[in-house]
Design brief:
The protein has helices at about 1-20, 30-35, 40-65, 70-85, 95-110, 115-125, 135-165, 165-175, 180-185, 200-215, 215-245, 250-270, 270-275, 280-300, 300-330, 335-365, 365-400. It has about 425 residues and is mostly helical. Keywords: Membrane, Transmembrane, Transmembrane helix.
Length: about 425
Amino acid sequence: MQRSLRVNANVIYLMGFFHSFVLIVPIFVPLVQAHGLSMTQILQTQALYALTIACFEVPSGYIADIWGRRRAIIIGSGINGCGFLWLVFADGFGDFLVYEVLLGIGVSLISGADLALLYDSQKQLEDSEDAGPSASKALSRLISIEAAASGLAGLGAALLLLLGDMSVLIAAQAISGFIPLLLGFLLIESPRPRLTQSHSANTAAILELLLRGKPVVLWTAFAIAAFGLMAMYAFWIYQKYWEMQGIAVEHFGYIWALFALTVSLGARYASYIESKLGWRCLLILTAILPLVGLLGMAYAGGWVGVMFGFSIQLSRGMSLTLFYDALNRRIPGDFRATVNSLVSLAVRSLFIVTGPLLGWSLDTQGIKVTLLGLAIAFAPILLAVIIGLGVRIRRESQVLPLLKKGAGQQTPAAV
């Protein structure tokens, strides 16, 4: 069984790689604009994508907890592949809406289930004599791999554009999009107690955990939602921003690769930075970096403005590792996929309402006003989140000082 679980982790890493190796992402905005869509329409398709996830996210996470994470991941990967295949024939606004619905259903089935299966598998290995990497390191490794895959997709997109047009990228993505489905059949369901309570009792237990059980869990969820929403906005601004700076589409892939590498490095070394600076300083740094990036992009132009985007990406990498590790350490294995899905739902739900407004602002107010507006809006939000989370972490550490032997620094994940 231990050997199977080690294979499990490696398969999830590979699946994470190919789920993030999406060749069309680095040039998606120009690709869709070539089919006649405005930024408002593009963000409307993303709002539908978020709405689809909002409808399926929590039910799919709960299904993964009840019926098995492996099944949810396999079905979601298959639907994802069908979505990329549909993109081969997409030509108008309605076709892209169908594409986003398919991807939304697929992602909602995978999201939460993959993290939960990886975390459960590594926890099983930690309890064995042949432990392998810890669950927190495995989570950090997965985030780094996914970010690196996104970077390689950027390089792949740039190279394929040299060989042909965007249709070549779409065809290549349709083929690679089914690789996670094939890998999914190699997964092994991690042994864990099966839920025996009624659905209503399980729902009550989850709400009790989030709202009253552990305050750090709720505030960590707030942090993931706030930082995740800001990163999502930046994601859809980048390509339009590069276009406005006169950067050729052929260079988008290279920039995207460097941006993704920055996320990967931030995720990989978040724990190291935390050990050197302390968790309080890391929280502050994670909140300051994206605000600096937004302001720098607003006031600087050309390649200098592009460079400021790296600070947003660095914060993204650090926050993913910091907050998701802190969250998963405090969630019982029975409900891990459900709670991860709930957190993702919070981000998507906020984007449903605000995404089209972002597109409208980019079309009518311009890139600078939009960037400044985001910086002004998020400054108090991030301040409130890091203060609230910091207070709850300090209180928890005073009540339950569960520092591991040999750990010299209190951290949100270790406390």
